[in-house]
Structures are given as structure tokens and as C-alpha cells.
Design brief:
The chain is built from 25 helices and no strands. By secondary structure, the protein is mainly α. Helix 7 packs antiparallel against helix 9. The termini are far apart.
């Protein structure tokens, strides 16, 4: 029987020559030779010499590009987009929370309780991401990579409905639940998208294709900053539509991703579906020489034969994976603790000190997101030439240098008139350094360091680590922003938080709280 869209009996030829369906009972050399012979017969029958210059090859290159875009627009793009759009309506949502509570109880909320509710709204996003990261591994094994990304959009649809009707229903709890659900969506997509793309790309492009996850994250951040402008959806009446706009990328993915192939590695190694694997490879590679790739898949299939998918805790007990797990944990922790989020949080106040008008700061913030997008794109181009280690080491060294200068500039900004400008320059340099290496390379480590049985569990470990740290930062950072306050004011605020019943206020004061919740 022929494969769908193959135009011939491709499946049986490969199986006969390379023992494809017999589970690789021969030696590795036999498998390689059989795969080469099978591919040669296919090429001679189709009239192609394995060249990469014809229109058919370019057509298949477009299939890989479409796969990258379809997976990214509803994947890590959603992560960056939902991470950034929450900043613009901060004051409006806090006022809505206070008004809703006053309508229910007849009394306004004290300022520190409004801040607490807002911190919960912010931190429920990474909490949902943690749940999604833990859900991603089982989903990737049971449904497959592509189907998991498609099913993941259910969370976005429900969240968008909650956001859109929250103000009409007079319920800030709907906003909280919606943020939890978009967090689950981001947690699943952050793990499965690089896994899907890394398994679908050819070996020579695997790093660059997987790095597109960082590009879509940065693109989502920039788009969220643009859409959140006061002139667009950042106004006091449009914030429910701003939060619900996450539905658009989800619908784009639902419309495009079903037309594209599943991961060939998953089809062969996890499901044992030889014909579906060959059909996916034909669509992704065209008529280029598949012999070496088929042999590589057979080797990995033989190595994983009879093995069950690993569980996260099994990775820590396996001595053969000790270095891989250690690298994953150390580099994942470094990315979250490197201070990039803190630099973003301080950006508004630094720009203000440098003389940027208050109404223009939102445009300067967009510039920081564009810096990360630019360097993520550059990193995607050079990763295969420069290497993963060089990008990581170079990025962290530059971040250390610029972060040190930034700290000195903040300490001396009242002593020299040019220090605020130096601090502003350090923000852009720090974000550029983060984007060139750590932002993207860290995310593809689990794809390249672990085999098919351990890869979903590795992404669960990496995702749980990342989202736990983001949750703690999101919950605690607003209460730790003490810039511009005296020790007496800080002590008084902490006393009110510790003894809320003995405190009579302060009453709701929007601008004071917004300055403490820039993150």
C-alpha cells in the first residue's frame, strides 16, 4: 500500500531493504545500508537525485517554516504576550477590584489588601504555568506533540471568555481564574513547542529551529507592549478586551497547525507508526536524502525499545543522566535568577530619572522588548556556527559586566547628572546580552541532552523549576519594592501587613500601588 501523498509504494521498499518494521533486528551497519538503498530506490523511481536545489525542496522548506510559525504563534508567543499585557491595565484592574469589593460590602479595600489581590492575579499566571509544565509530559506522550499543542488552546478559549465578561459580571475572581488558565496554557506550550520543533527539524538546523521558541517569546512580549498602549487597548474601558485578545493567537494556531505533520520521532519511537513517520519526513524534507536520518531514527528506536517513558524523579536516580540533569537544573536556575526580570521592573523608574517624560515611558519600554527580539533572532542565525556553550558563556559574562555597571549607576545617580543616562544604557545592554544566549539556548537543552524516553520528563523538571521561581518573584516582588521610601515608611508598611486588623488604612491610593507593581 502507498503512503498518503507519496505517489508510490514507499513504505514497503524501506521495510524490505532496511528491516524497517522488524524493530531493527540487524546490526546498525545493516540498518544504515538498508536505509541508503531504500532511499536510493525512492529517488531513482521519483526521478530525483537527492539534490536540494529544486522547487520541490524549496516547497518542503516552506512546510518546515510553516510548522515553526504555527507552533510558535500559539505556543511561546502566548507566554510572552500574556506576560506583558498585564502591565498596561494594572491601575485599571486594581480600581476595578476596589470598586467590586465596595459594591459587595459597602466599604473600600485598604491599599495593602488591593496590593495583595493584585499580587495574586499576577502570581497565578506562573502558578498555572507550573501546573501546565507538570501536565505537559503526560500530554506529550499520550496525545503527541502536535495534538497536545492543539488541545492546549482549550485553556485559552475559556480564559478569554472569563476576561471578556469579568467587568460585566462584576467579578475580579474571573480575572484570577483566567490568569491561572492562560498560565496553564503557557506552561504546556513552553515545554512541548521546543520538543516538537526540535524533533521535526533536520539535525543541521535543530538548534536554529528550536531557538525560534525564544524569538516567539520576545515577539509576544513586544506585541503585548504595543497592544497595551493607551492609544490601543490600554485604556480604562478596554482592559477586558486587552486580556481577552489572547484568543487571537490561539485561533490562528487552531486554523493552521492541523494542516502540518506530527513529529516523525514521536510517530516512530513512541507510536511505532512507520508509515506515518515516513509521510511526515517526506513532507518536512521533500525528496532530499533520507537515508542517514532514517538510520538515526532506527538506532534511537532500537535503544528505546522496550523502555517506558521516564518519570521526573527517575532522572535524578539514574547515574547515566547525572550530568545532563545537573546542567539542566543549574542553567535553568541561572536564567531565572540572572536578574533580567528585575531590570525590566526597574526600567520605568530609570527612564523617568533619565528625563524621559512620563507619557513617553511606555514607548521606551517597547524598545527593551525589541532589544530582546533582535538578539534572539541573531542568536537563531549564529547558534549553529558559534555553538551553544559560547553563546551561554558570552551572554552571562556580558550580563555580569553590564549588571555591575548598572548597580553602580543606580547608587550614584543622585551624585552625577549623567549617571541616569548610563543606567538607561545599561538596561538596553543587559537585555541585549540576555537575548543573545541565555534566553534561547537554555530552552533547547532538554531537547538535545535527553533521548526520546527521558525528554518529556526533562522538560517537566525544567518547567517546574522555572515556573516555581516566577511564582515566588511575582508574589513577593511587589512587597519588596522599597525604592524611594524611608526606613520608617518601610517599617510602617510591613507592620500593617503583619497586623492588618490593627491598621485603619491606608485607603485605596492607585498611583502608589501601581509604582510597586511594575513587574
Amino acid at each position: 500500500m502507498g503512503l498518503p501523498g507519496s505517489g508510490g509504494e514507499l513504505g514497503p521498499q524501506i521495510r524490505v531493504n532496511g528491516s524497517w518494521a522488524e524493530g531493527m533486528e540487524g546490526t546498525v551497519a545493516e540498518v544504515r545500508e538498508g536505509a541508503r538503498q531504500g532511499a536510493a530506490e525512492i529517488h531513482s523511481r521519483d526521478g530525483s537525485g537527492g539534490g536540494n536545489e529544486g522547487p520541490e525542496f524549496r516547497s518542503q522548506g516552506r512546510v518546515l517554516l510553516m510548522t515553526v510559525c504555527a507552533a510558535g504563534i500559539g505556543g511561546t508567543f502566548q507566554f510572552g504576550y500574556n506576560l506583558s499585557i498585564i502591565n498596561a491595565p494594572t491601575l485599571h484592574i486594581q480600581e476595578f477590584t476596589n470598586q467590586t469589593w465596595q459594591a459587595r460590602s459597602g466599604q473600600p479595600l485598604p491599599g495593602h489588601l488591593v496590593l495583595l489581590v493584585w499580587s495574586l492575579i499576577v502570581s497565578l499566571y506562573p502558578l498555572g504555568g507550573l501546573l501546565g509544565a507538570l501536565l505537559a509530559g503526560p500530554l506529550a506522550v499520550m496525545l503527541g506533540r502536535k495534538q497536545s499543542l492543539l488541545a492546549n488552546n482549550v485553556f485559552v478559549v475559556v480564559a478569554a471568555i472569563l476576561f471578556a465578561f469579568s467587568r460585566r459580571a462584576g467579578s475580579f475572581e474571573m480575572v484570577m481564574l483566567g490568569r491561572l488558565l492562560v498560565g496553564v496554557n503557557a506552561g504546556v506550550s513552553m515545554n512541548i513547542q521546543p520538543m516538537y520543533l526540535g524533533e521535526s527539524a533536520p539535525k543541521e538546523l535543530r538548534g536554529a529551529v528550536a531557538m525560534t521558541s525564544a524569538i516567539f517569546t520576545a515577539l509576544g512580549i513586544v506585541m503585548g507592549q504595543v497592544v497595551g498602549l493607551r492609544e490601543l487597548l490600554g485604556g480604562p474601558q478596554a482592559w477586558p478586551l486587552l486580556l481577552a485578545s489572547c484568543l487571537v493567537p490561539g485561533l490562528l494556531q487552531l486554523a493552521s497547525l492541523p494542516l502540518l505533520p506530527e513529529s516523525p520521532r514521536y510517530l516512530l519511537i513512541d507510536r511505532g507508526d512507520t508509515e506515518a513517520c515516513l509521510a511526515a519526513l517526506q513532507r518536512l524534507r521533500g525528496t532530499s536524502d533520507l537515508a542517514l536520518e532514517l538510520a538515526e531514527l532506527e538506532e534511537e528506536r532500537a535503544a528505546c525499545q522496550g523502555l517506558q517513558p521516564r518519570r521526573p524523579w527517575e532522572l535524578f536516580r539514574d547515574g547515566t543522566l547525572r550530568r545532563q540533569v545537573m546542567s539542566l537544573v543549574v542553567l535553568g536556575s541561572a536564567m531565572e535568577l540572572c536578574g533580567n526580570d528585575s531590570v525590566y521592573a526597574y526600567a520605568s523608574s530609570v527612564f523617568l530619572e533619565a528625563g524621559v517624560p512620563q507619557e513617553k515611558i511606555q514607548y521606551a519600554i517597547i524598545g527593551t522588548g525589541c532589544c530582546e527580539l533582535l538578539m534572539a533572532s541573531v542568536s537563531c542565525v549564529v547558534i549553529e556556527r558559534v555553538g551553544r556553550r559560547m553563546l551561554l558563556m558570552g551572554g552571562y559574562c556580558l550580563m555580569t559586566f553590564w549588571g555591575s555597571i548598572f548597580t553602580v549607576a543606580l547608587c550614584l545617580q543622585n551624585s552625577f547628572p549623567w549617571m541616569p543616562y548610563l543606567a538607561m544604557s545599561c538596561i538596553f545592554a543587559f537585555i541585549l546580552s540576555f537575548g543573545i544566549g541565555p534566553a534561547g539556548v537554555t530552552g533547547i537543552l532538554a531537547t538535545e541532552l535527553f533521548d526520546q524516553t527521558a525528554r518529556p520528563a526533562a522538560y517537566m523538571v525544567c518547567g517546574a523549576l522555572m515556573w516555581t521561581m516566577l511564582f515566588l518573584v511575582g508574589l513577593g516582588f511587589p512587597f519588596l519594592m522599597t525604592k524611594g521610601k524611608t526606613f520608617l515608611e518601610i517599617s510602617e508598611e510591613l507592620r500593617k501587613l503583619n497586623l492588618p486588623r490593627r491598621s485603619q488604612g491606608p485607603r485605596w491610593r492607585g498611583p502608589d500601588v501601581i509604582q510597586s507593581t511594575e513587574l
